[in-house]
């Protein structure tokens, strides 16, 4: 873990996802630089996330306990709030308050890469909810995710 | 509280400080747009903070429980980590892990405004510590700050 400042784009980008297929395909082309982890932060995460043309940040989802916030650094990603669309530009931001039940997702519908900072806290007992997709995700006590259909069958 | 995205610079900027004189003078020229509060976020704060030439973010300080993170949006603020200086530029970032005892402060030593995003969680029981200044700050149960000299005398 580091304590010295650096250019955010020099932090290693990772592309892994916990989503099973076919959902993993939605976030193909998404990469995250885990800036908060780089500095050993424990209470919240900060990622510099890039979406290639066509890529999405996640499935449309909302959280029970985790607040989230995004700030656009480059490009023109589209923000979905349930079925409403907002075309964003650099300097735009949005917050997603835990428990408000509004689904959110960023999709890069443009022909150029888009990048943004995303912040989320690490409140215990948080559950994400995916209103449009047959996916149930839970964080087990061992720190691993349990990934299942909504009827409980594992993927 | 809002749920719709907007340009961060359109959020109202505030300049108030909890510091008594002479410390309030250090942050004269600092203004904060409370982006997280605009969206009703409770678990962490996100501010777009601007420093006029000569202004500082805060006194040099560190926290017992609150993680902090900054990302430079414009200008060239100088980051102090104890007595070390780092000249930052847009796209640079740094994280300040709770409890590591490293004092941090941003000072705009340039002739142009500098702005950055700052994120801090709201962990209960946090205490800031000011290694270079005779200031003790504590958050009371009523949500107000108690501001005192280090020997307990109030300002």
Which key features would you list for this structure?
homodimer, 155 residues, mainly beta, six-stranded antiparallel sheet, three-stranded antiparallel sheet, 14 strands, 3% helix, globular
Structural summary, described in words:
The structure is a homodimer of 155-residue chains. In chain A, a hairpin with a 5-residue loop joins strand 13 and strand 14. Chain A starts with 5 loop residues before the first strand and ends in a 7-residue tail after the last strand. Chain A is globular, with a radius of gyration of 15 Å. Chain A contains one helix and 14 strands, in the order E-E-E-H-E-E-E-E-E-E-E-E-E-E-E. Chain A has 155 residues and is mainly β. Chain A has one helix at 35-38, and strands spanning 6-7, 13-14, 30-34, 44-51, 62-63, 68-74, 78-81, 84-87, 92-96, 104-107, 114-121, 128-129, 136-139, 145-148. Chain A binds chain B through residues 1, 3-9, 35-36, 38-44, 46, 65-67, 69, 71, 73, 79, 81, 86, 88, 91-98, 100, 102, 117, 119, 121, 123, and chain B through 1, 3-9, 35-36, 38-44, 46, 65-67, 69, 71, 73, 79, 81, 86, 88, 91-98, 100, 102, 117, 119, 121, 123.
């Amino acid at each position: 873990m580091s304590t010295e400042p650096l250019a955010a784009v020099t932090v290693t980008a990772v592309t892994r996802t916990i989503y099973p297929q076919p959902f993993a395909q939605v976030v193909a082309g998404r990469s995250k630089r885990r800036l908060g982890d780089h500095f050993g932060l424990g209470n919240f995460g900060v990622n510099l996330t890039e979406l290639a043309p066509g890529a999405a940040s996640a499935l449309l989802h909302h959280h029970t306990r985790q607040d989230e916030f995004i700030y656009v650094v480059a490009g023109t990603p589209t923000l979905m709030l349930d079925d409403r669309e907002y075309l964003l530009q650099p300097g735009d931001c949005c917050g997603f308050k835990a428990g408000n039940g509004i689904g959110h997702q960023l999709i890069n519908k443009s022909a150029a890469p888009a990048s943004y900072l995303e912040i989320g806290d690490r409140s215990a007992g948080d559950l994400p909810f995916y209103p449009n997709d047959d996916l149930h995700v839970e964080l087990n006590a061992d720190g691993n995710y349990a990934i299942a259909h909504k009827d409980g069958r594992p993927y």
